[in-house]
Amino acid sequence: MTGFSDTFAVMGEWVDCSTNHKKRSKAELDRETSLEEDVKNKDFLQTNFQERSSYSGGGLSERVAARAGFKVPSINTESNLWSLNISSPGATPATLLESPVFLSNPLLSPTTGKLSSLPSDHKAKDEFFDPTIIGVESDASQVYEQTHNIGLGGAPADDGYNWRKYGQKLVKGSEYPRSYYKCTHPNCEVKKKVERSREGHITEIIYAKTHNHPKPPLNRRSGIGSSGTCNDIQIDGTEQQGLAGTNENIEWTSPVRNYGSMQVQNRTQFGYGDAAFFKDEDEEDRTSHMSDSMGYYGEADESEPKRRKLEAYATEMSGSTRANRAPKVVVKTTSDIDILEDGYRWRKYGQKVVKGNPNPRSYYKCTATGCIVTKHVERASDDLTSVLTTYIGKHTHEVPSARSSSSHMSSGSSGTIQGGLPTQTHNNHVHYPVPHSISEGLVTASSSLFDFQTPMRPPWAGFSVYGGETELLGLSISGLAIGQERFSMPATGDPAGLMLQLPAEPKLEQVAQQELRFSRRSLIYRDTSSLPEI
DNA sequence: AGCCTTTGACCAGCG
DNA sequence: TCGCTGGTCAAAGGC
């Protein structure tokens, strides 16, 4: 990709490694120089991404079929649009990598990115990103890829494809121009727009449509793709080639249907196009975040003093300023796919209807000690097939291991679905989500489903998240039939009458795990059996 | 030479 | 209809 970087320094500030300084204004250069100096002065991470083109679609179906013993549908994509939206300059690639969306979520991991120099256990991360583990790939991989290829200082990072910039436009509300790119592959209609913030950070990359071709081999890719790279480019061309080479004629699956497909959505598509509105949303995000910690469930519209107070609190909590606050990543999934199952453990602490969306939003907090990451899971107001998940903050811990040994299903024990489920395999175990509790009836059932451990659930598995509610198709949990109906959390208190506070930490019940596990298996089997063949 | 970026102009949608 | 805005085109130039 042109001018994109495979490597970038991660510091909470984007660093422009491009060589186009000479073409930039003095102000820009000054700022960028400052940033670069800042980088030098900090203990930053330098992340290399070893790309794998798990995005190569055809192999997907085949792999799934091979593992599952059944075929998965290939769904033609007429069009799709998604974007990565980083509202905070602090949303560094590392942040994204470590976010539940991009690190642990198997749905997003089809395209492997290796953190070759990440100080933490990148081996473990590799496992999460191993495309061979993920049975399905689709737009999710794009999300991952694009996410990890956020460019530095204005150039979108190398995502494995070749792009030609065909336009640049100064759009209203942006200090920096928006850049337009087209995929250079013949007959490929994929385009992307790259926007930058006033600070010059890339804030948004919007992709339109999906590639109808595999990634070009490394040696065919435009040299420009690395032109903006600082150093340490590490692209696993072999693997990429290997995965991509057999999928020339594959139709890319739709994010609406395909497991693993996911859209990182821009706020415009969510009705957040207005900057002020987004600001409110962002404010509210913090509010929700803080509400959890402060035991206060406020309204969306905070008074100015309250806002300042909350913002100050947020700053304290996240170590960020308003311009550099906790990273926020908005992800859009389809109803069949939810990134609640992202490997982390979440506790639902509230639910409320927020401005701009009649669908309730549910709030979750990472249950890990000391971790302040929150997320909230809502159905798009304009697209009921989509679920929007916003992550706020950065996990301070690794993805938790399996909740208990009982949650591990032997790879040889699942009959028809053996190995066919896109199961994530840690330590050679196939992980199945385990509910925390079923002791609280419907509420708990819902919560438990939200709290699954590193799930690898295909869209046809049967349930979906629905704006703080859960749709379950024929799933039975411990005698609790939840058939094609939605159920909500109970309210235990909310000053505004909007936020529903949930009970305390759920409990783990072994029996429930077993039963639910069985139910899921049954459910999965049933649903997948009805899948059309390719 | 080929491919890219840059940039002003043009076009279309919308209020 | 007009102006605004976003998206695209295409010539020119750079690498």
- Structural class call reads alpha+beta
Helix % is 10-25%
The CATH topology label of the domain at 328-392 is N-terminal domain of TfIIb
The biggest beta sheet, please? 6 strands, antiparallel
**Overall spatial form:** globular
CATH architectural type of the domain at 328-392: Single Sheet
In round numbers, the mean pLDDT is 42
- Cα-to-Cα separation, first versus last residue: 32 Å
Instruction: Return the CATH class of the domain at 328-392.
Output: Mainly Beta
Subcellular location: Nucleus
Domain WRKY: 158-216, 335-400
Region (Disordered): 281-303, 398-430
Biased composition (Low complexity): 401-414
